[in-house]
Amino acid sequence: MNVPTDRQYTAEHEWIVIDGDGDVARVGITEYAADALGDVVFIDLPAVGSVLTAGQACGEIESTKSVSELFAPADGTVVEVNEAVTDAPEVVNTDPFGAGWLFTMRIDGAPALLDPAAYAAMTSGQTL
Amino acid sequence: MNPTSSGGPLATEPPESPLLAEHRSAGATLTSFAGWTMPLRYGSDLAEHRAVREAGGLFDLSHMAQLEVTGPGAGASLDRSVVSVVSGLAVGRARYTMLTASDGGILDDLIVYRLGPEEYLVIANAANRLTVLDALAARSEGLEAAVVDRTPHRALIALQGPVAAGVLRGLSGVDLGALRYYAIAVGAVAGTPALIARTGYTGEDGFELSVPATAALAVWRALLEAGAQAGVVPCGLASRDTLRLEAGMPLYGHELTADITPYDAGLGRVVDLGHEFVGRDALAVRAGRPGGQTMVGLIGSGRRAARAGHAVLLDEVQVGTVTSGALSPTLGYPVALARVTGAAAEPGTEVVVDVRGARQSMQVVPLPFYRRSR
Q1: Which chain B residues are within 8 Å of A42, Cβ to Cβ?
Q2: In this complex, do B303 and A67 lie within 8 Å of one another by their Cβ atoms?
Q3: In this structure, how many other beta carbons lie within 10 angstroms of the beta carbon of residue B138?
Q4: What are phi and psi of A29, to 5 degrees?
């Protein structure tokens, strides 16, 4: 399973890339999560300006077979949502770490995140 | 010597598909289903769904129960067991029917194939294998009929889709043109003796092949190889579920349960009250009270699907519950099956479905959602 080393992770299978200034972050779901869901057909993202609390549900991802909640990886405010993924949710399966990003947020404080090695270890023994 | 060791595996042990190793090596995502480990999808479930609609798909259905009923009393024993008269079937024909409890509740839905004058094959759902086996055995008491569970020794492979007949023609010695829908023939596939049935659960033309477990791998590979050029791909249970939903076909545990009768599932047409069977008296009473709950199709707009368990509302009052739902891969809009009462059963009715707090408008439509062009 691919776990890029240029970003951080949550136990809820999200990835987060925090910019150089440390206040704006881009968020998506991992390849592991995308594979577990199957073909993603619907994504409900938080509206721009929504205030998020780390660990709280902030959206939904539906595959043909299942519905999963999307959890905020950090405290903060939504800056931008990726309308390309709401229009064509399959990009989450084909490019979860790139074009399949979900939203960006201005983060408050220092979120508790997993480094790539910890996330890889967490998912290595799990079967889908 | 341990006397229990000679009888083979106990009927209560869920067997393993003879194709499991092949699925693993193909990289399939596996799922646990009624104690069986079966492929959920090989890659993209949407691509598998599309392949069946446009070309062909190959499914391992070895988890389905294959029960044989034989003997001079086989027909009589099945007639008293299920809601239809199957002894009236011609040899080589099949019927979709149901097994009910004495209160009329649905214990399983079945396909009964007549293989010979005194020989029937019953295909039951994996989760209900022992229930059906026990019921058929109990209900054959006093009749010269033997009920045998062939599931551990057989595999069931389905080839479904518009190219299915063309692909199978090259591999079987059977005149497929003469094999009508809901018919079965004894033949061979890729040199292996096989029961070839023109049935399926996808809404497409196709075949279900019962073969010895020992030959399953050879048949599976031969079908994939012969069909590759025509676009046949291996398909998992995820696509099977969306395919059957589009075709408006019920799934036990969702549209059908022990708590409801065939009438409540909108399938009263399969019940023949003109013969004696377990559940008949209760069903006769229910048939005399029309206007209860029934199964309907719902369509919506957007991409958010109604799912099993969501409430169906008419004028702010709950009139039913969604039993299955998905964003239809073929149609591109949400479809759902729901069990509703009263006026909500009328096609054209606008209802509201509570999708996890979001209220979605849906319309009652006739089934199926999808019908293939012939």
Answers
A1: 303-305, 327
A2: no
A3: 11
A4: -105, 155
For residue A74, which phi and psi values (nearest 5 degrees)?
A: -160, 165
- The DSSP annotation for B154-223 comes to EEEEEEESTTHHHHHHTTBSS-GGG--TTBEEEEEETTEEEEEE---SSSSSEEEEEEEGGGHHHHHHHH
Domain A8-108, classified CATH 2.60.130.10, yes or no: no
Write out pLDDT tens, residues B48-104: 999 999 999 999 999 999 999 999 999 999 999 999 999 999 999 999 999 999 999
Same domain, residue pair B283 and B325: no
pLDDT digits 0-9 by tens, B299-325: 999 999 999 999 999 999 999 999 999
pLDDT digits (tens, 9 = 90+) for B288-301: 887 789 999 999 99
pLDDT band per the 50, 70, 90 thresholds, residue A126 = low
- Quick one: B349 and B318 in the same domain? yes
Sequence letter at residue B35: G
Q: CA B137 to CA B144: how far, in whole Å?
A: 11
Measured CA angle at B18 (ends A35, B218), to 5 deg? 100
pLDDT of residue A66: 87
Q: Which of B41, B49, B303 sits opposite A42 (nearest CB)?
A: B303
Tell whether B160 and B305 lie within a shared domain. Answer: no
Q: Indicate whether B124 and B224 sit together in one domain.
A: yes
- The CA distance from B326 to the nearest CA of chain A, in Å, is 6
Average pLDDT over residues B324-331: 97
Q: Can you give the residue ranges of every domain in chain A?
A: 8-108
| Angle between the N-to-C axes of helices B74-81 and B129-139, in degrees from 0 to 180, rounded to the nearest 10 | 120
Residue A8 near residue A18, CB atoms below 8 Å: yes
